[in-house]
Amino acid sequence: MKKLLLLLWLALPAAGALAQPAKPKTAARPVAPAASAKVWPVAKAQAWYRAHPWMSGANFIPSTAINQLEMWQAGTFDPATIDRELGWAEGIGFNTMRVFLHSLAWQQDPVGFKKRVNQYLAVADKHHIQTIFVFFDDCWNPTPQPGLQPAPKTGVHNSGWVQDPGEPNSRDSLTFSKLKPYVQDVLRTFRADQRVLLWDLYNEPGNSKKLTASLPLVRNVFAWAREVKPEQPLTSGIWAWDFTALNALQVGNSDIVTYHDYEEEPWHLRVIQMLKTSGRPLICTEYMARTRNSRFANIMPLLKRENVGAINWGLVDGKTNTKYAWDTPLADGSEPKEWFHEVFRRDGTPYKPEEVELIRKLNDR
Question: What does residue 210 show for φ and ψ, rounded to 5 degrees?
Answer without folding.
Answer: -80, -25
